[in-house]
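Box 3.1 — From sequence to structure: peptidylprolyl isomerase
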Amino acid sequence: MKIQPNTMVTLRYTLEPVDSQGFHYPRGPYKMEVIMGHDRLLPGLEEALMGVDEGATVEVVLEPGRFAGESEEESHVSRREVVEEGPVEVGDLRHTMDENRCLRPFRVLAVEGDRLRVSFAHPLAGRSFRFQVAVERVRWATLEEIKAAKSPVRGQGR
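Predicted structure (token representation):
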């Protein structure tokens, strides 16, 4: 069976950056089951897998912006807005609280007196990543799985 909208797909995959920059995360293999056609995968990955047969192995490269977003422009944060206590150094990952009282992570780029030059971009933003994906199983989703897929994914604001 081929992957198409409303199919449940079991995938085994590995992930690695295309560039030679540091990557301090496990590369896998990971295994997941996901419903297709309901924005539950990264858009470029879901697009690349549509039409692939059960049992196939594919390589998918997601260009910058399609994996963890684009590199964001720099911003400034007052030291008073930093949630964590203690000294702040360049390279630190810290948090501020947004208007909805949600923590918002940022990386410190420079300490400039009482202000910090920061980036709110994901640490992997602006990089290309290669997925090696094995399609282990494809089946039609049940009605319950389709209904559940139409519910908003937590944190995606849909």
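Summary of the box: The chain is about 10% helix and 35% strand.
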